[in-house]
Design goal:
The protein is of the alpha/beta class. The chain has 13 helices and 14 strands. The strands form four sheets. It has a seven-stranded mixed β-sheet, with helices on both faces. A three-stranded antiparallel β-sheet has the order 10-14-13, with helices on one face. Strands 1-12 form a two-stranded parallel sheet. The longest helix has 25 residues. The protein is globular and about 60 Å long.
């Protein structure tokens, strides 16, 4: 990502939808320049400004602002929660594969990671019996991301209560990363587990399904007593948010249904295209369709390690694709489909062309360094 994200034109690797411009937001949300001119660049409150917390509360907590804290993206939320609630030596169950911050911060604290593996043979569907087997009296926290990044898999609605009961029965904290909760395709979003388990903190962000990563706005939802434990770290780390960004974020949350419907329809269009493309190219990719979010995690047929493929796409085809080695599955790639439909279609064509070139080369013997299976 660091090497190719800003230098490639066709994005097949990112995990969010197409970004909005300020002009687009102003038109969609009826923001005029007088609104912006009235903002003073003063400090904001430690858990977020009154207007932003109010907007978040109306959308997620039936108006209870005491259950909401605004953060610098969900990355700060993860950092605050883990550093407030974990200590070196704690056991932390993390979903695997998963978004890197959800396990790397716990690891940096000195926690012992216990990996709850989502298996391709199960369609990446979470196995609750496997989770039960991982839980011990030493389990301090369970960290999950559903719909999952990178696989797009999620819990079935029928198993949601059972999942929460498994965690609650241990007394462990539950960190529920809901970055993709509001973008599902053939089933409604899952409920917020923080509504029924007091030791749960739910995380959200404007970065993924809202298409606003540059705002760096995230949030935590949970028991006010848990949120209060974040304040000592917040006060010496980032202090507060920008009032300008808080204003825009509050308008976005209040207009979320319109924002999400437009980008959700675009992601659905791209997913339909991707499903059809994968069905026509089973000799190239082994595809498991996602339940939600903007990414899938296909296996690339004939490749033991896709890093060479992804570098070739970046250097030669102007395409960003993320190797599965970033998630512990070197034969796979994270394939994002949230972008502009025309650019997405062109990116898939370039990926297909490149994969065919590997297979053509392989017919007469693999080239040195290709990492294509013989």
């Amino acid at each position: 990502m660091r090497e190719f994200y800003f230098t490639t034109e066709f994005d097949l690797g990112s995990s969010g939808v197409q970004c909005w411009s300020l002009a687009q937001l102003r038109r969609l949300l009826a923001i005029d320049m007088d609104d912006l001119d009235d903002i003073y660049f003063d400090d904001s409150q430690s858990l977020g400004g009154r207007v932003l917390r109010g907007a978040l509360a109306r959308r997620f907590t039936a108006g209870n602002t005491e259950r909401v804290a605004a953060t610098h993206g969900s990355t700060e939320a993860i950092f605050l929660v883990m550093n407030a609630l974990l200590s070196a030596g704690d056991e932390v169950v993390v979903v695997d594969p998963g978004y890197h911050s959800l396990w790397s911060i716990a690891e940096s604290i000195g926690c012992r990671l216990i990996r709850w593996r989502l298996r391709a043979t199960d369609g990446f569907v979470p196995d609750l019996d496997a989770l039960r087997a991982l839980m011990t009296p030493r389990t301090r926290m369970v960290v999950v991301n559903f719909p999952n990044n990178p696989t797009g898999a999620s819990l079935a609605h029928a198993r949601f209560d059972e999942f929460v009961d498994v965690v609650a029965g241990s007394g462990a904290y539950l960190v529920w990363d809901g970055a993709f909760t509001e973008l599902t395709y053939d089933s409604p979003p899952l409920p917020d587990p923080a509504e029924r388990y007091e030791r749960c903190i739910t995380l959200g962000t404007l970065s993924k399904v809202y298409g606003l990563p540059g705002t760096r706005i995230g949030w935590c939802i949970g028991d006010p007593r848990l949120l209060a434990q974040l304040l000592p770290i917040r006060d010496v780390l980032t202090i507060c948010l920008s009032p300008l960004i808080e204003f825009i974020a509050a308008r976005v949350i209040d207009g979320a249904d319109r924002i999400l419907s437009l980008r959700g329809a675009q992601a659905r269009q791209n997913l339909d295209h991707l499903n059809a493309w994968a069905a026509a190219n089973t000799h190239l990719v082994d595809w498991i369709a996602p339940i939600g979010g903007c990414t899938g995690f296909p296996r690339i047929v004939g490749h033991h390690n896709t890093e060479h493929l992804c570098r070739r796409l970046g250097n030669d085809e102007n395409v960003l694709l993320i190797p599965g080695s970033c998630f512990g599955h070197p034969d796979r790639v994270r394939l994002g489909f949230g972008g502009d439909p025309a650019a997405f279609a062109e990116g898939l064509e370039r990926l297909e062309r490149t994969l065919h070139s590997y297979h053509t080369t392989n017919t007469s013997g693999p080239t040195t360094g290709s990492r294509v299976a013989p």
